[in-house]
Design a protein that fits this description.
heterodimer; A: alpha/beta; Rossmann fold; Rna Polymerase Sigma Factor, Chain: A; 2 domains; nine-stranded mixed sheet; two-stranded antiparallel sheet; B: alpha/beta; eight-stranded mixed sheet; 8 helices; 8 strands
């Protein structure tokens, strides 16, 4: 295991932030669900705030499908602010003055953690499709290894939305005694058929791109940009909602007075989606997209526990607070409520909040005052229980 | 629609104070129809209970979670089934039973998930209610029952006699009963004609009939 840090990166002002990488050598493999022992591997992560003396103030932030560990610092690739700047910071729900916050790039991703675009030490070329298929449980196992190397066993809180929420559920299920509080947001205990279907559309778009080259595009010096952009465009629609799209674009035309009777981006919504697609390919690896969407598809916590979701949380002492968003049709309130039912059946301590919004699935990343207030209430109460107030 | 409070929570309702007095400190408590968390908050502060709540209105749930209470959005008629047997020491149903679809099923579920059940309810046998119907010839509207017949959430109103019958049928023993009139409350030994006529509200503390 080796560690490298750079401390001179632009985080939010007032946050003590560290950007680092941790590498596990050939003797410290990550045991994957598919049976492969992955070694060596590297985890890229960031931390915010200060670890207290008894290490009781650790918050693990789990990121979504195409996000990264730059939760509260400027993204080095896009130059954009951290994706959860509205939640992480001094005086915010994840208060950097009180908590030590860790966010790791998941295994299989492409932002510094080992994934299919990294060099396979056995061949000297990029893994491509030789990278083993990973699962949500593998992501969590890797996170636990990284935390253990940082000397951290217990987590005050594990929080995340979408695929991040799946990791939260996996953490609470696999390591119940280590998780004091858990906040799964806009998520599900199993990926729905409709969501698998959308993911398959994205994967097929990538694989249909001639530049994909059976996953070996890096060696060929090309990128399947068109396929990846289409995958992103389709996915992006699922992150929004019909009312939000209508409010933002309606049927407005893009820089023109009337339709052109052709296939240019006549409508603003087309132009917007094309932009979303083309900017995505600059920051994300196509094969990583295949692997991570697959990990989500395979997630089914009940199936791992004899078909009964409540069994995943039997005798749990963890305090849960779930959030759903009224216009989210990717991970609808009903999916989140299913988790609540299971937690009730396990007599767990659970709160469940539905935020009224028309912003769709992505609302968990946006500035929602009600999310802020309820999150503050739950985290504040959990912190008092944990003696962190 | 079922988990609804009949009164707006201005100051602490008289029945809530009485209910709080019936709970053993440190107990596991489920408040069904917990509104904005007034009672749970009181119980957490004064009785150090491990409290949970179910509330129908999302507004109420969010208010509860904002004040640090463990509350889910849910419905007394459907969601009590989720809980395992004996999950709680007390389950509380305050001024909610009259708004449930199936009061009998709700009581049966309560009896299953907690050793003790506490129910408060408005008394439809109160003399003012009877008088309004008898002399006015119209559906009564009173302080406790402030809705018109066409917009009331209270679909299963009953008198104290009626409730006691149902409680026995559902397998409960009534340990303690209090009548509430205005701001005063008094114990009722057995629910008799007097209580059924003069109590505006009543609070029942019950356990399983063995």
């Amino acid at each position: 295991m080796s560690e490298t840090s750079q401390k001179d990166h632009p985080a939010q002002p007032d946050i003590k932030a560290t950007r680092a990488k941790m590498t596990f050598g050939p003797g410290e493999p990550l045991t994957l669900d598919c049976g492969v022992q992955l070694a060596p591997f590297t985890i890229a992560y960031e931390t915010y705030g200060t670890l207290n003396a008894d290490k009781s103030n650790v918050v693990l932030v789990c990121h979504a499908l195409t996000l990264d560990h730059h939760a509260a610092s400027q993204n080095p690739v896009t130059g954009k602010p951290g994706w959860w700047n509205s939640i992480i910071g001094p005086g915010l729900p994840l208060d950097t003055d009180r908590f030590f916050i860790v966010c790791q790039n998941v295994i299989g991703s492409c932002m510094g953690t080992t994934g299919p675009k990294e060099i396979n030490p056995r061949t000297g070329t990029a893994y491509g499709l030789n990278f083993p298929v990973i699962t949500i449980a593998d992501m969590v196992r890797a996170q636990a290894m990284c935390l253990e190397q940082l000397g951290i066993r217990d987590l005050f809180c594990v929080i995340g939305g979408s695929m991040g929420g799946m990791q939260v559920l996996q953490w609470a299920s696999a390591y119940p005694e280590r998780v004091f509080s858990a906040i799964p947001m806009a998520t599900a205990a199993r990926h729905s058929a409709q969501n698998i279907a959308f993911h398959e559309v994205g994967r097929q778009a990538i694989m249909a791109d001639a530049d994909w080259r059976m996953g070996d595009y890096i060696a060929a010096g090309v990128t399947p940009s068109k396929g990846l952009a289409v995958a992103r465009m389709a996915a992006h629609i699922t992150y929004l909602s019909e009312p939000a799209l209508h409010r933002k674009f309606g049927r407005n035309l893009q820089d023109r007075e009337k339709v052109t009777f052709g296939f240019d981006a006549d409508f603003q919504v087309e132009s917007y989606l094309r932009y979303q697609g083309s900017s995505f390919v600059d920051r994300f690896d196509a094969n990583s997209y295949l692997y991570i969407t697959r990990a989500m598809d395979y997630f089914d916590l009940a199936a791992d526990h004899g078909g009964v979701l409540a069994n995943a949380f039997r005798n749990t002492k963890t305090r849960f607070c779930l959030f759903s968003f009224s216009s989210d049709w990717l991970f609808p309130t009903s999916d989140n409520r299913q988790i609540v039912h299971a937690l009730n059946a396990a007599a767990a301590n659970v709160s469940f909040v539905e935020i009224e919004t028309d912003k769709g699935h992505d609302a968990f990343l946006l500035d929602e005052p009600e999310l802020f207030a309820t999150l503050n209430g739950f985290i504040g109460s959990a912190a008092r229980q944990r003696g962190l107030a | 629609m079922s988990v609804i409070r009949t009164n707006g929570p201005s100051s602490l309702r008289a029945d809530l104070n009485i209910i709080a007095g019936m709970i053993t400190p440190g107990a596991r408590v489920l408040d069904v129809g917990c509104g904005d968390g007034e009672l749970l908050d009181l119980l957490a502060r004064k009785r150090n209970v491990d409290g949970r709540g179910i509330e129908l209105s999302q507004e109420g749930v969010n208010a509860c979670v904002t004040r640090g209470l463990s509350v889910i959005q849910g419905d007394a008629d459907t969601d009590l089934r989720d809980y395992p047997d004996d999950a709680f020491d007390y389950v509380i149903l305050s001024q909610t039973i009259q708004a449930t679809w199936e009061p009998r099923e709700v009581l049966t579920q309560m009896r299953r998930i907690a050793r003790h059940s506490i129910v408060s309810l408005p008394n439809f046998g109160h003399w003012r209610v009877r008088l309004q119907l008898l002399l006015g010839g119209r559906m009564p509207v009173t302080k406790e029952l402030g809705h018109s017949w066409y917009d009331t959430p209270n679909i299963h109103l009953c008198t104290l006699y009626d409730f006691v019958d149902l409680a026995h049928e559902a397998g409960f023993r009534i340990d303690e009963a209090l009548s509430v009139t205005g701001s005063t409350s008094q114990p009722i030994g057995t629910v008799g004609r007097r209580a059924n006529l003069f109590a505006e509200l009543a609070v029942f503390s019950m356990s399983r009939q063995s």
